[in-house]
């Protein structure tokens, strides 16, 4: 059923223009600190990893945000590369902190076996405002394509471009939250002048594979690792998760490249997008971070065993 849903910006049925986007941005308030939460954690990792600032985003009047990538200190051009990205959607907290936790506690286990490239927080402005979009009301995770209008997406594409052809794996860390249904999907409908169509939020962890390169064994290995930490989302009664057919327990598929999703930016053999559910009564914030770490480790272990 399609419902007319009230959203406090714009006129129902009319796409936003510059004035509405400015009004939306003015409503966003800083709720946490990228410098305190993320940059400080990256600084503590500098002894073990090569840290580079791959871009700097001027989001005046809100501030200037440096974007950081961490690489294996023992980088070896003879080894394959594994990319880990988090915080493409800034509000999806465990993606950011799961990536940092993996670096802190487990990355050294893979030294000499694979080159790690980790971008813990692709969208720092949105991280601070616990939002899905960037300041221009653009979804970074629909914007990974040539000539992207999204600065966050364009910067990551530029970082990865020189390494294409050498990636074995890319895992992109996300969450599906209750606020998707209460805030972000209504905002999307309002921005595009479309009616809001209510959906469902799955209770548990699931993966979005690439329909053009699904790698079912890889997806199943990641879920098997995560299942030791938190529960895997069941399918809805119609056999779907967020409206997409479930192709294996806890796995759906998207055409990643066609949709401009982050997990499409490499030519890696193995790609997936994680989806943690932090609002479940069965999952704590620490458990969500642990689930992301388990997903990274499960992905790396499988990819390295099946190069």
UniProtKB/TrEMBL annotation:
Task: Kindly indicate whether the keyword Hydrolase belongs to this entry.
Answer: yes
Question: From which residue to which does the signal peptide run?
Answer: none
Family to which the UniProt record says this protein belongs: Belongs to the peptidase M14 family.
Would you kindly state one Gene Ontology biological process term found in this protein's UniProt entry? proteolysis
- Enumerate the GO terms in the molecular function aspect: hydrolase activity, acting on ester bonds; metallocarboxypeptidase activity; zinc ion binding
Q: State what protein this is by name.
A: Zinc carboxypeptidase
**Cofactors per UniProt?**
Zn(2+)
Where in the numbering of this chain does the Peptidase M14 domain appear? 30-307
Question: Could you tell me which species this protein originates from?
Answer: Solilutibacter silvestris
Q: Which UniProt keywords apply?
A: Carboxypeptidase, Hydrolase, Metal-binding, Protease, Zinc
The cross-references to InterPro entries, in alphabetical order and at most eight, read:
AstE_AspA_cat (IPR055438), Peptidase_M14 (IPR000834)
């Amino acid at each position: 059923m399609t419902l007319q849903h009230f959203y406090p910006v714009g006129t129902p049925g009319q796409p936003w223009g510059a004035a509405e986007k400015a009004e939306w941005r003015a409503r966003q308030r800083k709720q946490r600190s990228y410098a305190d939460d993320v940059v400080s954690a990256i600084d503590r990792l500098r002894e073990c990893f090569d840290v580079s600032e791959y871009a700097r985003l001027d989001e005046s009047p809100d501030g200037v945000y440096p974007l950081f990538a961490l690489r294996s200190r023992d980088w070896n051009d003879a080894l394959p590369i594994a990319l880990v990205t988090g915080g493409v959607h800034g509000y999806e907290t465990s993606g950011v902190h799961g990536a940092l936790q993996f670096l802190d506690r487990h990355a050294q286990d893979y030294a000499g076996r694979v080159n790690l490239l980790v971008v813990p927080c692709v969208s720092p402005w949105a991280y601070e405002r616990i939002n899905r979009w960037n300041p221009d009301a653009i979804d970074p995770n629909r914007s990974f394509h040539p000539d992207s209008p999204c600065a966050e997406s364009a910067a990551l594409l530029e970082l990865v471009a020189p390494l294409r052809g050498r990636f074995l794996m890319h895992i992109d860390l996300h969450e599906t939250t209750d606020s998707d249904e209460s805030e972000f999907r209504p905002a999307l409908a309002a921005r595009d002048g479309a009616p809001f169509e209510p959906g469902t939020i799955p209770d548990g962890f699931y993966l979005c594979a690439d329909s053009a390169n699904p790698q079912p064994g890889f997806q199943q290995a990641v879920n098997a690792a995560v299942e030791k930490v938190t529960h895997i989302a069941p399918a809805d009664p119609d056999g779907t998760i967020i409206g997409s057919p479930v192709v294996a327990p806890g796995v759906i598929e998207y055409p990643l490249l066609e949709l401009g999703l982050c997990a499409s930016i490499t030519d890696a053999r193995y790609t997936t997008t994680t989806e943690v559910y932090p609002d479940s009564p069965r999952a704590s914030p620490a458990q969500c971070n642990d689930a992301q770490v388990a997903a990274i480790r499960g992905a790396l272990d499988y990819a390295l065993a099946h190069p």
